[in-house]
Write a structure and sequence with these properties.
The chain is of the alpha+beta class. It has 2 domains: 159 residues, Aminopeptidase (3-Layer(aba) Sandwich); 140 residues, Aminopeptidase (3-Layer(aba) Sandwich). Helix content is 22%, strand content 36%. It contains 7 helices and 15 strands. The strands form 2 sheets. Strands 1, 4, 5, 6, 7, 8, 9, 10, 11, 12, 13, 14 and 15 form a 13-stranded mixed sheet that branches. A two-stranded antiparallel ribbon has the order 2-3. Helix 4 links the parallel strand 6 and strand 7. Helix 1 crosses helix 3. The chain is globular, with a radius of gyration of 20 Å. The termini are far apart. Bound molecules: coenzyme A. Coenzyme A binds next to strand 6, helix 4 and helix 5.
């Protein structure tokens, strides 16, 4: 008889969890000097190159690094064991944000080993995730990038929003604002605030992911900039983060944690700060109805699925 256990994952599960994620990768690639994907063999890839194929789970050591930070940063990882072997994993973060998300549990990862899909493990992990949402008094449960929408629909989640990555040029402007360094502090610093730019998962998850040292110190990524500011425009103070991506050097992936809605002045200040920092463009991940005359939508899109847990 098959014995299934759903439990908290620990750092020692990293090799098995990495194997789960790697089992779902159909082909491996390396970026050439022009940033073009070229077929490659797993064993020939450096840890940083593996990461670009699908994140920290693509290598046992970077997976351990990621799990250690996730757990220290208030995230939750669940493992599903089948007859004593870890064959599936889920990751979750809570956040407190303005409506419609309010107190939210977001499932950022749900992967079942390729050889064990369709054996109810995904459903058991979902069941445990809903129990965690209940224990933590969450009002909403989300999957921000649903790769298997029909599976989530079976579990009561509905399409609730679409997010798109927009590109804006960095541009100086005549606008008064102040910037100060943003401390490297836990999510409580911005708890309750919205994330009108850069909401890839939820505010708790994205805050942790943009803190210094979220990725190991890969030699190839050493020149990439992470700039974190308190940004004050008028009476409004927000947390602004620019993260330069290894795929798009010179482009700042932008995150704005703020207690109030995004204003044109704040956006102008962000573009000005980016230009003064030497970035050429901003990548702003925002609701698909984000409007700005200079914003160009790119083809990176998330369909967010949500279940409301309380009236
Ligand atoms: C999608 C996934 C998490 C589902 O987990 P699973 O353990 O294979 O699913 P279960 O065995 O619990 O299936 C439960 C039900 O959902 C259905 N289902 C499973 N995967 C599905 C999918 N991709 N799309 C639609 N329905 C799916 C099953 O047919 C089953 O239906 P039934 O109850 O009517 O028989 C898993 O297949 C997986 O890891 N896939 C690859 C990675 C992925 O896409 N992850 C999601 C990232 S957002």
């Amino acid at each position: 008889m098959q014995k299934i256990i759903i439990r908290q994952a620990t750092v020692t599960d990293a090799p098995a969890i990495s194997a789960v994620h790697c089992s779902t990768v159909a082909r491996w690639y390396a970026l050439d000097a022009n940033g073009v994907e070229r077929p490659a063999r797993y064993n020939d890839l450096t840890p940083a190159q593996r990461w670009l194929n699908g994140g920290p789970w693509m290598d046992a050591e970077t997976c351990a690094y990621h799990l250690r930070r996730l757990i220290a940063g208030g995230g939750q990882a669940l493992a599903a064991e089948l007859n004593g072997r870890v064959v599936a994993e889920a990751e979750l973060f809570t956040a407190d944000e303005p409506e419609p998300y309010s107190r939210n549990l977001n499932l950022s990862v749900l992967y079942i080993h390729r050889n064990h899909q369709g054996q109810n493990l995904g459903s058991l992990l979902m069941q445990r995730a809903f129990e965690l949402a209940d224990e933590q008094n969450c009002e909403t449960f989300t999957v921000a990038c649903a790769e298997a929408p029909d599976f989530y629909a079976k579990h009561g989640l509905r399409h609730a929003a679409t997010y798109t990555r927009f590109q804006l040029s960095a541009q100086t402007a005549k606008i008064d604002y102040l910037v100060e360094p943003l401390p490297d502090a836990p999510y409580d610093l911005v708890r309750g605030w919205g994330l009108p730019i850069g909401r890839y998962q939820n505010a708790g998850h994205d805050w942790e992911r943009t803190r210094p040292h979220a990725a190991p110190d890969f030699p190839e990524w050493r020149g990439l900039r992470l700039e974190r500011y308190w940004l004050a425009v008028g009476d409004e103070r927000s947390a602004l983060i620019f993260e330069e991506s290894p795929r798009f050097p010179g482009v700042a992936d932008t995150f704005l944690f703020t207690p109030s809605p995004l204003t044109p002045d704040t956006l102008a200040a962000i573009r000005d700060r980016a230009a003064r920092s030497g970035f050429t463009h901003l990548h702003c991940f925002a609701p698909a109805d984000f409007k700005h005359p200079d914003a160009m939508p790119l083809d990176y899109v998330h369909r967010l699925f949500m279940k409301r847990l309380r009236a």
